[in-house]
Design goal:
heterodimer, A: about 250 residues, mainly alpha, globular, disordered N terminus, B: about 120 residues
Chain lengths: ~250, ~120
């Protein structure tokens, strides 16, 4: 993996396919070969067990994976319903955890789009946006010709979502035999893999700063129980990292 | 939700909750991103800034998930969770930035810590 070589826009296409269908299957194949396949498998075994313990059906779990498609939001939703929390509070917690999806979509779509892309071609990549797909897309898409990126991205996402749905079922039916310590280990996959994969993708100083400042600010605001902590950590930390990046560029 | 509801409505209730409490509050941010991303190109400053904000927000989510865990992860002591994340991160750096190595080591530390300090 050429450290620092795969900068967006600076290299010729390294991955090309003969057709959109081939790009789609190429994306799905890369989903099954990435570390996120293992991470999603474990995470959704954990979520399946959680859904089972709180008395939700396997079909409900599957639908929540397809519709929500964000592990932190699903954990909040399932444990919120299961413990009988006020629905308004659950909705608020879900929406706060989902704010990250907004800048992620903004950063992703310009990579997927070409001049001839229409709005409806962007609906699927928009809905599919999640940490695993975003991290892998930002890493891989710059190596593809622009007109094949949407198909590759959809294939990648369908691969990940298929794994999540499948392993959700596994967890659901294994739930009774899943010891609490193992269940905890599976739930730990989400923060751990988010942390490490974001760090892997952080090749530019700006991304590293955003990660470091966001972690510190997020921890501080969460501990202080500041309202909308994630939004402040994201906008404040991200803007600070961006500003430092611009200043350094201006000096260079 | 009342006990007087007919069975059809009661069966549908979890799905109604899924859409209103799970899907919509989550999806709205993706749709807003789609609206804002129109007309922006790959190299624009707004896109670069968005990437920084996305990364920092994600970092905030990570901090929150580690500090205030849900479900059975909440039963693992905070010190064990933080140590496992830190050791996993160091393993990732040592193993030439291998995500797999970092995740595997971090998970092993959590499992060992949970075994030693819980129950």
């Amino acid at each position: 993996m050429g450290h620092g070589q795969a900068m967006p826009g600076s290299n010729p296409s390294l991955l090309t396919f003969n057709s959109s269908a081939a790009a789609f299957f190429g994306g799905a194949r890369s989903a099954f070969m990435s570390v996120f396949f293992v991470v999603l498998a474990g995470t959704y075994v954990g979520l399946g067990a959680l859904a089972h313990d709180f008395g939700l059906s396997a079909f409900w779990l599957t639908l929540s994976t397809v519709l929500v498609w964000a592990a932190p939001a699903q954990v909040i939703l399932i444990s919120g319903i299961g413990t009988g929390a006020a629905l308004f509070e659950v909705a608020l917690a879900v929406t706060l955890s989902a704010i990250r999806l907004f800048p992620m979509v903004v950063a992703l779509l310009p990579l997927v789009r070409t001049r001839s892309t229409r709005l409806h071609d962007l609906l699927l990549p928009t809905h599919f946006t999640s940490v695993s797909m975003w991290v892998e897309s930002l890493r891989l898409l710059p190596m593809l010709p622009a007109e094949q990126r949407a198909a590759f991205c959809n294939g990648l996402s369908v691969g990940y979502m298929g794994a999540a749905v499948g392993f959700g079922f596994v967890g659901y039916y294994l739930a009774a035999g899943l010891p609490p310590l193992l269940a905890a280990t599976l739930l730990f996959l989400t923060p751990l893999s988010f942390l490490i994969s974001t760090a892997r993708n952080a090749r530019m100083m700006m991304d590293r700063l955003a990660l470091g400042i966001g972690l510190a600010l997020g921890a501080l605001l969460t501990i202080m129980h500041v309202e909308f902590d994630l939004m402040w950590a994201g906008v404040g930390g991200g803007t600070l990292a961006y500003a430092i990046h611009r200043l350094r560029e201006a000096r260079a | 939700m009342s006990a007087a509801m007919n069975p059809g409505v009661t069966d549908l209730w979890p799905f109604l909750v899924l859409v209103t409490v799970g899907f919509l509050p989550n999806e709205i941010w993706r749709v807003l991103g789609l609206v804002l991303a129109r007309g922006l190109n790959e190299d624009s400053q707004v896109v670069l800034w968005s990437r920084a904000v996305a990364t920092a927000t994600l970092a905030g989510v990570i901090a929150k998930l580690l500090l205030f865990s849900n479900g059975s992860l909440a039963a693992i002591p905070l010190a064990v969770r933080l140590t496992a994340a830190a050791v996993g991160f160091v393993a990732f750096l040592v193993a030439k930035r291998s995500v797999f190595a970092g995740v595997a080591v971090g998970e092993s530390v959590l499992l060992a810590g949970g075994y030693l300090f819980v129950s």
